[in-house]
Design brief:
The structure is a single chain. With 363 residues, this protein is α/β, with parallel strands linked by helices. It has two domains: 242 residues, 3-Layer(aba) Sandwich (Rossmann fold), CATH 3.40.50.300; 102 residues, CobW-like, C-terminal domain (Hypothetical Protein Yjia, Chain: A,domain 2). It is 36% helix and 22% strand. The chain contains 13 helices and 14 strands. The strands form two sheets. It has an eight-stranded mixed sheet, sandwiched between helices. Strands 9, 10, 11, 12, 13 and 14 form a six-stranded antiparallel sheet that branches. Strand 11 and strand 12 form a beta hairpin. It is globular, with a radius of gyration of 21 Å.
């Protein structure tokens, strides 16, 4: 495997410095987008390219990604955003070639925001082993957002979450203000130390974090991690070689077959009471398997201003309102990432609640 010393040699041989790449990962709902959006509003980081990869999610409230048929979007903050259309290697090469051709601004750094279901090993492997990538880029840092409310349960159920924490150079513990439990936070800190003794840990509320946590770092070095990390990367190397030999594509965003996504859409507005009852019932009855919920809802009290929804397992965040609907949209659209919750069950629950007495509740 290519190591840190090999990267240093490559950097010395290049007439132009290698472009540093930060991988920002973390399980569904851990706050990656909130962290990134706050950092990139800083004018000091406007020369940043952002690669976003989400499993089945539409960026309904995404402050970074604008809806576009183009793969690369100039954002209002001055950054360049690219939503993955193929594999990571092809995306990075395309970005570099367009940069060199003058088709896009000359970004100085890259952030890859992974899907919450991503196994980070294939991503790290791509950065370290693919010559077309490491001839132009260097993996500088892996940063993982950890949800203080749900992390312990997630670690017990999702192997990807354990890997995301173990490979990190920095662990950003989010939602500590919501956890509000000293013993639970101490237990989480101990778990993180066990998973990743060398990782720098910091608490992060509402996405506020020192930019150095994301952008410092020279060369990512797996030798500083646990033996598990080196083993995962070795397995990935073997799998990659086998895939090349048999001409198989490598999936950089693998997830369990039991996890899937779908959208619930409705044109008619719903009351705040009905929406609140639906969300509470969903969290109470199937919260363990509600990995992520994100949506825009048309409410009866002011249909011209969409309500933004966020939910992660049993935690449903207070709604907030946008000033106007995104272009081309004015109806309810809720996107679910779930484990084993059938779409028919969710839609039937929603319709029953909307047509019940809950619709008349005043909140």
């Amino acid at each position: 495997m290519t190591g840190a010393s090999d990267y240093a040699s490559l950097a010395a041989m290049n007439t132009e410095p290698l472009i540093p790449v930060t991988v920002l990962t973390g399980f569904l709902g851990s706050g990656k987008t909130t962290i990134l959006s706050r950092i990139l509003r800083d004018p000091a980081f406007e020369d940043t390219a952002v690669i976003v990869n989400e499993f089945g999610e539409v960026g309904l409230d995404h402050l970074l990604v604008e809806s576009s048929e183009e793969s690369i979007v100039d954002l209002s903050c001055g950054c360049i955003c690219c939503t993955i259309r193929g594999d990571l290697m092809a995306t990075l090469i395309d970005l570099y070639e367009r940069r060199e051709a003058g088709e896009i601004r000359r970004f100085k750094r890259v952030v890859v925001e992974t899907t919450g279901l991503a196994d980070p090993a294939p991503i790290i492997h791509t950065m370290m082993q693919e010559p077309l990538v490491f001839n132009h880029y260097r993996l500088a840092r892996v940063v993982t957002a950890v949800d203080a409310v749900n992390a312990m349960a997630t670690f017990d159920r999702q192997g990807e979450a354990i890997k995301q924490a173990a490979v990190a150079d920095a662990l950003l513990v989010t939602k500590t203000d919501m956890a509000n439990d000293g013993e639970a936070l101490s237990a989480l800190d101990a778990r993180l130390r066990q998973l990743n003794p060398s990782g720098v840990r910091a608490r992060c509320i509402d996405g506020a974090v020192d930019a150095e946590m994301l952008f410092s770092g020279g060369i990512y070095d797996p030798a500083g991690k646990t033996a598990d990390v080196e083993g995962w990367l070795a397995e990935e190397n073997a799998a990659s070689n086998a895939a090349r030999e048999h001409h198989h594509a490598i999936d950089v965003n693998r997830h369990d077959d039991g996890i899937f996504t779908y959208a619930l859409t409705r044109d008619a507005p719903v009351s705040r009471g009905a929406l609140g009852a639906f969300m509470q019932m969903l969290a109470d009855q199937r919260g363990d398997d509600l990995l992520r919920l994100k949506g825009l809802v048309r409410l009866t009290d002011d249909p011209s201003r969409p309500a933004v929804l966020h939910g992660v397992q049993h935690v449903i965040h207070p709604i907030r309102r946008l000033d106007a609907w995104p272009e081309g949209s004015n109806g309810t659209s809720m996107v679910f990432i779930v484990r084993g919750i059938e779409q028919d069950w969710v839609e039937n629950l929603f319709d029953r609640v909307v047509e019940s007495a809950y619709a008349d509740l005043a909140l």
